[in-house]
């Protein structure tokens, strides 16, 4: 990692999608201002008037063009996933998957496919904040040689509903209330929890959201699953059930609830800023793609139904095979054209990928194109640069709002003789898409499979798989959310539901939210799966953000060595002092200040390096450092203490200073501090 901006590295130079987008990229710097039709403007600050104090004139077309464009700039925001952010990158295949799929981008080890990614929350509007406790989504659009593949995933392996017919109900209940449009970006209100209490299939995903998974630290540290069950089809026309999972190379890490709430006010753009900053610094986010495969013959082998989107496939029973890696190596240049206008659709697949009878997936195949056409105003949204495939596309579709391509042939129907029956269809053996001929039988009926009806076994498995600290965080999440519910009846109903998962959990929540402890008991399940806990996730110092609290008079040699070591390990360093400018060490070393105590916050860094320095003539410096130390310590963050900063840290009987590393009399301070940064949290701290 050389620290250069990806803009300088230009990874798109070898990326075919970026080459395609380059023809649409325009820089206005150094160019004359014109109207949309190209007429050069001589003035752009005042309307055309009859005299300097007179009325404006109707002939002022330049004003009309400028203002009318402004009035129409916004498009309908997404009904869900409105709050999102994007980046570009590539996918590299690790191993050939031709034994299970003929999808071209999965045939050869080392094959690279350009892509774009959009991360998003679900509940909040476009202007909400990033760190809300919510379900998060990751849409990946792969620009393959056979056409676009849209792989949409969410940050937990289970969904809130088992049939697409219920999705509007779940979202209506989850989003802000109709009377006051409150709350923003939160399910902590009566209608959502009333829905949960009366739709038991929702409980499983809700438990995941109430756990640490619901308040992730960074999009770069987000695990995500396809939820839906797809089919892989090989060239012998053999089908295999498949679910996808993206595993972040940096591991899966979360905020504490208090941090998430505070950061939402301090920096509503926390996650998108974090993503953009990492890419700009060359610390490209990476995610390995895993697949879970179940043979068609084993469809009924497991205690869960493989088609139930509200159930996970345990990794301990259905191993994850890592087959490739996604790397995000370029930031978007224009949010509107590259993120707001990107349109995903799970129906976008290529030969070798097909659809199971998963009832949520079946509904999504119909819903996505309709919503994208509504948002973007025309069926021609696929012609937008960000959505356009790399491979040629030809059909008989014409006209419509904002049709861009100029089809010069006069025949637009099939079959025909005037154009020799072109565009022509392609036989499957030559690459034409063929749906898997799965057997279908049964009566036409609105009903759900009985095998979907176990609503409590997997939620209990998830609960039992959490560590004590993860359980405590989940209790805090439930207590906070249900504590906001005004209806005592709804609070009681949810406690009565939770008892099916765990009796002790339900009793604790009941006591916390002022309702009766429930009768009954939890289901008789004792299974635990380590893969469901974040405890075993990888942890690195790489890209962790350290706030350096510093003033003039610091030990120049000591601090220089420490900062150099942090940068060697890829740690992001933020220099914080009482004023912008430079701070000077005892040996003349000058360090540029990035932030002041006013412009940033201890909530916005992952750890602290308390350097201190000369405090004379500054009565506020010491209280500011003490505030930062207290917040970092209370949130279990690593803290490094320079020799000049020792006076800020008091050893008391009430604390054990776990995770606090001192430079004094410690020749290995730098390495010890890096090790602490990599650990990220010290739960044994008191």
From TrEMBL:
The keyword Heme applies. Residues 34-422 form the Catalase core domain. One of its GO terms (cellular component) is cytosol. Keywords: Heme, Hydrogen peroxide, Iron, Metal-binding, Oxidoreductase, Peroxidase. Residues 37-47 have a biased composition (Basic and acidic residues). InterPro entries: Catalase, Catalase_AS, Catalase_clade2, Catalase_clade2_helical, Catalase_core, Catalase_immune_responsive, Catalase_large_C, Catalase_sf. GO terms for biological process: hydrogen peroxide catabolic process; response to oxidative stress. Heme binds at residues 78, 118, 167, 364, 368, 375. GO terms for molecular function: catalase activity; heme binding; metal ion binding. Residues 1-54 are annotated as: Disordered. PROSITE patterns: CATALASE_2, CATALASE_3. Its EC number is 1.11.1.6. Residues 15-26 have a biased composition (Polar residues). It catalyses: 2 H2O2 = O2 + 2 H2O. Its cofactor is heme. Decomposes hydrogen peroxide into water and oxygen; serves to protect cells from the toxic effects of hydrogen peroxide. Belongs to the catalase family. This is Catalase. It comes from Lederbergia lenta.
């Amino acid at each position: 990692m050389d620290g250069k901006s990806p803009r300088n590295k230009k990874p798109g130079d070898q990326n075919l999608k970026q080459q395609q987008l380059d023809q649409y990229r325009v820089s206005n710097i150094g160019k004359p201002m014109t109207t949309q039709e190209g007429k050069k403007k001589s003035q752009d600050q005042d309307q055309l008037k009859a005299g300097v104090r007179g009325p404006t004139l109707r002939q002022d077309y330049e004003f009309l063009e400028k203002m009318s464009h402004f009035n129409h700039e916004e498009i309908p925001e997404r009904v869900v996933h409105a709050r999102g952010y994007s980046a570009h990158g590539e996918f590299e295949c690790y191993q050939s998957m031709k034994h299970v799929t003929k999808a071209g981008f999965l045939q050869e080890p080392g094959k690279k496919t350009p892509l774009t990614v959009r991360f998003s929350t679900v509940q909040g509007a476009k202007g909400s904040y990033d760190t809300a406790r919510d379900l998060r989504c990751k849409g990946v659009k792969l620009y393959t040689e056979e056409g676009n593949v849209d792989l949409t995933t969410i940050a937990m392996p289970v969904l809130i509903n088992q049939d697409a017919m219920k999705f509007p109900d779940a979202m209506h209940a989850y989003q802000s209330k109709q009377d006051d449009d409150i709350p923003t970006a939160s399910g902590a209100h009566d209608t959502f929890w009333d829905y949960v209490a009366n739709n038991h299939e929702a409980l499983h995903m809700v438990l995941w959201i109430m756990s640490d998974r619901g308040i992730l630290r960074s999009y770069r540290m987000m695990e995500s699953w396809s939820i839906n069950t797809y089919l892989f089809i090989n060239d012998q026309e053999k089908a295999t059930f498949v679910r996808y999972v993206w595993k972040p190379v940096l591991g899966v890490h979360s905020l504490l609830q208090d941090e998430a709430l505070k950061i939402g006010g301090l920096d509503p753009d926390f996650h998108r800023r974090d993503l953009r900053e990492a890419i700009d610094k060359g610390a490209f986010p990476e995610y390995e793609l895993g697949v879970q495969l179940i043979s068609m013959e084993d469809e009924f082998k497991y205690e869960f139904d493989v088609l139930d989107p509200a159930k996970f496939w345990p990794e301990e029973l259905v191993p994850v095979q890592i087959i490739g890696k996604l790397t995000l190596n370029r930031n978007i240049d224009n949010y509107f054209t590259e993120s707001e206008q990107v349109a995903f659709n799970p129906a976008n697949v290529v030969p070798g990928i097909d659809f199971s009878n998963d009832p949520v997936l079946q509904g999504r195949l119909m819903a996505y194109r309709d919503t994208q056409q509504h948002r973007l105003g025309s069926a021609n949204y696929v012609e937008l640069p960000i959505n356009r495939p790399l491979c040629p596309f030809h059909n008989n579709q014409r006209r419509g709002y904002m049709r861009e391509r100029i089809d010069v042939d006069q025949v637009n129907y099939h079959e025909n003789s005037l154009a020799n029956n072109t565009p022509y269809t392609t036989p499957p053996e030559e690459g034409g898409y063929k749906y898997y001929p799965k057997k279908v039988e049964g009566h036409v009926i609105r009903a759900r499979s009985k095998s979907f009806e176990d609503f409590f076994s997997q939620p209990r498995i998830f609960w039992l798989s959490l560590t004590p600290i993860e359980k405590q965080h989940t209790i805090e999440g439930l207590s906070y959310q249900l504590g906001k519910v005004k209806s005592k009846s709804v609070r009681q109903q949810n406690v009565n539901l939770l008892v099916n998962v765990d009796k002790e959990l339900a009793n604790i929540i009941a006591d916390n939210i002022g309702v009766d402890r429930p009768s009954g008991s939890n289901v008789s399940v004792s299974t635990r799966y380590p893969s469901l806990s974040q405890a075993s996730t990888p942890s690195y110092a790489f890209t962790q953000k350290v706030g350096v609290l510093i003033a003039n008079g610091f030990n120049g040699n000591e601090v220089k060595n420490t900062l150099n070591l942090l940068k060697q390990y890829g740690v992001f360093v933020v220099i914080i002092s009482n004023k912008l400018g430079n701070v000077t060490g005892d040996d003349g070393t000058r360090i540029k200040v990035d932030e002041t105590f006013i412009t940033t916050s201890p909530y916005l860094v992952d750890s602290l390096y308390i350097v201190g320095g000369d405090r004379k003539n500054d009565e506020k410096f010491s209280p500011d450092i003490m505030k930062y130390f207290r917040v970092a310590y209370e949130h279990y963050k690593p803290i490094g203490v320079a020799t000049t900063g020792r006076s800020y840290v008091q050893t008391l009987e009430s604390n054990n200073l776990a995770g606090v590393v001192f430079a004094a009399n410690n020749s290995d301070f730098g390495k010890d501090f890096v090790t602490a940064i990599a650990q990220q949290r010290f739960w044994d701290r008191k």
